[in-house]
């Protein structure tokens, strides 16, 4: 769960430092283009991870981002973040086993601290990737970490942006990039690629001004009841086997801390049909409750207009048959019918989350919910 703690700390730091930046003192473009090189390694994050890691991995990225000018209250609160998209390519070490990856993802780049010469940033992106050498029982049996060619790509980055000239900057970063299909097709321990990156960013025609510096309003509603339903499908134990459904319900109390953020805590319940079927097939003596999960969680949600990013960590009060993991986590995106903080009306949202146990993804779910 260390990476979720890392996210929480950075999101809080970004909000606490937001008022220190005076954008009208610096030249800025409407958009920028950047290219970067990654040097790092695949990390063996699980005892079941079969292949040996003997070589370094290399990656390249081309990205485009829009500079927000504070026209929305959330932009001003978050220090005028950048919203963009990236095309990412990697040639993994031990290439005959892991192959290559190409992915694309939208991202948000949040400035933790901004100064005249250097800026400190945190960036997060979620998208899709194609990996060309997944597990194959005959052609690639050693790769027991990726079971399909189409996967999720999630990237967390932290780094520094050095301003060489108004139109040109050099940036460096430490990146954690995760590839996984969340057990939709097994095996699926996932690839965790940790890398150092460096590159250049071009800002065409930078100019002074154009920023909105109005006072940041308070949220109109501070206390919420948050209810949600979601469903996932995944393979249980058998490569190329049937896809089993998981049904989830969550209920939480949430408290707004600003126009862009709220913290929450609640109850989690899920029913896993795959575990129930497994006990039937292999003749285990079971009780119906052993296919159920019940837990409690706490989390944080960051809003970028109608889109929000949330992350939470929970502990099981009742867990699955043969499951020895006491802690779970979720990371996801939500799209809300109304903008956070601007109304007291009930609002519906749709969501997509990845559930993990430590660094191993269990499944992806999609769902609907309501804020009361």
Helical content band: under 10%
How many angstroms separate the termini? 29 Å
Please provide the count of β strands. Answer: 16
Structural class: mainly beta
Low-confidence regions: none
Average pLDDT across residues? 88
General description of the model:
This protein has about 375 residues and is mainly β. Helix content is about 10%, strand content about 55%. The chain has 4 helices and 16 strands. The strands form 2 sheets. It has an 8-stranded antiparallel barrel with strand order 1-2-3-4-5-6-7-8. Strands 9-10-11-12-13-14-15-16 form an 8-stranded antiparallel barrel. It is flat and about 70 Å long. The two termini are about 30 Å apart.
Entry summary:
The chain is mainly beta.
Write the layout of secondary structure elements.
Elements: H1 2-16, E1 31-42, E2 57-67, H2 73-77, E3 82-91, H3 95-98, E4 100-114, E5 118-131, E6 150-165, E7 168-180, E8 191-202, E9 223-235, E10 243-258, E11 261-272, H4 273-281, E12 292-304, E13 307-318, E14 327-336, E15 347-357, E16 360-371
Antiparallel strand pairs: 1-2, 1-8, 2-3, 3-4, 4-5, 5-6, 6-7, 7-8, 9-10, 9-16, 10-11, 11-12, 12-13, 13-14, 14-15, 15-16
Keywords:
single chain, flat, mainly beta, 372 residues, eight-stranded antiparallel β-barrel
């Amino acid at each position: 769960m260390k990476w979720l703690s890392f996210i929480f700390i950075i999101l809080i730091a970004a909000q606490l430092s937001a008022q220190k930046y005076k954008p009208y003192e610096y030249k800025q473009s409407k958009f920028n283009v950047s290219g970067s090189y990654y040097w790092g390694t695949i990390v063996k994050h699980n005892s079941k991870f079969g292949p040996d890691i003997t070589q370094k991995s290399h990656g390249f990225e081309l990205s485009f981002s829009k500079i927000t000018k504070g026209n929305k209250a959330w932009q001003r609160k978050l220090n005028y973040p950048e919203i963009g998209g990236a095309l990412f390519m990697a040639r993994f070490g031990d290439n005959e086993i892991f192959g290559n990856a190409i992915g694309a993802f939208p991202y948000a780049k949040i400035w933790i601290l901004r100064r005249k010469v250097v800026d400190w940033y945190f960036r997060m992106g979620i998208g899709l990737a194609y990996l060309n050498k997944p597990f194959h029982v005959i052609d690639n049996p050693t790769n027991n970490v990726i079971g399909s060619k189409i996967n999720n790509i999630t990237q967390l980055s932290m780094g520094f942006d050095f301003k060489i000239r108004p139109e040109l900057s050099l940036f460096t970063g430490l990146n954690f990039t995760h590839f996984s299909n969340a057990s939709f097709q097994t095996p699926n321990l996932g690839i965790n690629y940790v890398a150092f990156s460096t590159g250049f960013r071009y800002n065409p025609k930078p100019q002074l001004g154009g920023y909105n510096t109005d006072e940041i309003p308070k949220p109109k509603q501070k206390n919420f009841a948050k209810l949600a339903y979601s469903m996932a499908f995944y393979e249980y134990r058998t490569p190329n086997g049937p896809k089993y459904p998981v049904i989830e319900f969550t209920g939480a109390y949430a408290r707004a801390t600003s126009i862009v953020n709220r913290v929450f805590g609640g109850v989690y319940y899920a029913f896993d049909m795959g575990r129930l079927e497994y006990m039937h097939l292999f003749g285990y003596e079971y009780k119906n409750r052993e296919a159920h999960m019940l837990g409690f969680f706490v989390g944080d949600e960051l809003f970028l207009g109608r889109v929000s990013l949330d992350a939470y960590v929970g502990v099981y009060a009742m867990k699955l048959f043969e499951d020895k993991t006491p802690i779970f986590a979720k990371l996801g995106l939500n799209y809300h019918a109304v903008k956070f903080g601007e109304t007291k009306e009930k609002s519906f949202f749709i969501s997509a989350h990845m559930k993990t146990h430590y660094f191993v993804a269990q499944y992806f779910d999609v769902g609907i919910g309501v804020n009361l």
